[in-house]
From TrEMBL:
SUPFAM superfamilies: P-loop containing nucleoside triphosphate hydrolases. Residues 10-244 form the ABC transporter domain. This is ABC transporter ATP-binding protein. Belongs to the ABC transporter superfamily. GO terms for molecular function: ATP binding; ATP hydrolysis activity. Pfam families: ABC_tran (PF00005). Keywords: ATP-binding, Nucleotide-binding, Transport. The keyword Cytoplasm does not apply. PROSITE patterns: ABC_TRANSPORTER_1 (PS00211), ABC_TRANSPORTER_2 (PS50893). InterPro entries: AAA+_ATPase, ABC_transporter-like_ATP-bd, ABC_transporter-like_CS, P-loop_NTPase.
């Protein structure tokens, strides 16, 4: 195995992907000259509007599609090679699971496909199902699971072979805010275990909360890439949160700042975020019960 950059989980260089649309040679450029580095051990958000090339990029990382131009390496191994996938777990955008299998049977099935040794498979399956909070429902048929439970069992199948890189395509699509917050918590736990997570999501507040870095694609091109703190922080301003001031004292403060050459730019009532309000009001489901 040739290891080019040990600090990179994914290295994409000059990647272009064209799809042939018809026999007359009309092509659609889904990804154009993309260069991207996903550092190992970080949560990385791949963002962009519908049709911007996120899923195409993921399929190339997974070796499901070949690049037209450029290259993609996973832990230093070209993504077209089968061994590049040994350390990758994948939760597709709309996973299709065989509905008559129980959660446990499903995860065991994927564990066998991924080569988890037989003697540890049973314990490993229980461990990951417990980890995603589905122990109490592991014998239920997957066809009876709610959307949130399906995403959790999908996460369990992606983790069963203990991969170093986990790719999650829209893991919270259609999941309610409680389920969504729990998936965010699981992603952050994966990070504390040293895993690399590549996630796509249209829930930008969630991405901001959990990602170290993000890349934004538009029409197949990389528009922005960087650390979330650098991208959304405003470096030349500060917020001070104080108890409510009577108008006279507020004017005094404004004058005090003006005398020192500073402006009081905004006086606002702090607001809680709607998702935090929602989470503080609704009950969390019992583990293994009707998890949403
Ligand atoms: N197999 C294919 N054949 C032809 N065109 C395709 C194919 N797969 C994707 N495309 C086109 O490539 C472009 C990028 O699609 P892609 O699915 O990568 O976008 P996306 O960012 O994942 O979108 P979404 O957020 O809707 O999932 C789109 O214009 C899409 O129609």
């Amino acid at each position: 195995m040739t290891q080019t950059n040990p600090a990179s989980a994914i290295e994409i260089t000059g990647l272009t992907k064209d799809f042939a649309l018809n026999l007359r040679g009309i092509k659609l450029r889904a990804v154009e000259n993309l260069t991207l580095n996903v550092p190992e051990g970080q949560v990385f958000g791949l963002l962009g509007p519908n049709g911007s090339g996120k899923s195409t990029t993921i399929k190339i990382i997974l070796g499901l599609l070949d690049p037209t131009v450029g290259e993609c390496k996973v832990f230093g191994v070209p993504s077209g090679r089968v061994d590049s996938r040994l350390n990758v777990g994948y939760l597709p955008e709309a996973p299709y699971f065989y509905r008559y299998l129980s959660g446990e049977e499903l995860v065991r099935f994927y564990g066998r496909i991924c080569g988890v040794p037989k003697k540890i498979l049973k314990d490993r399956v229980r461990e990951v199902i417990d980890w995603v909070g589905l122990s109490g429902a592991s014998h239920r048929r997957v066809g009876t699971y709610s959307k949130g439970m399906l995403q959790r069992i999908g996460l369990a199948q992606a983790l069963v072979h203990d991969p170093r890189l986990i790719i999650l395509d829209e893991p919270t699509a259609g999941v309610d805010p409680v389920g969504s917050a729990e998936i965010s918590e699981l992603i952050l736990k994966l990070k504390t275990q040293g895993k690399t997570v590549l996630i796509t999501s249209h829930l930008l507040a969630q991405i901001e909360d959990i990602c170290d870095r993000v890349a934004i694609l538009d029409k197949g091109k990389l528009i922005v890439e960087g650390s979330v703190n650098e991208l959304v922080g405003v470096s030349n301003r500060q917020s001070l949160i104080v108890d409510s001031l009577p108008p006279a004292e507020l004017e005094e403060l404004r004058g005090w700042l003006a005398a020192r050459g500073h402006a009081l730019n905004a006086v606002e009532q702090p607001r809680t975020r709607l998702d935090q309000l929602f989470l503080s009001k609704v009950s969390r489901p019992q583990k293994g019960g009707d998890i949403k």
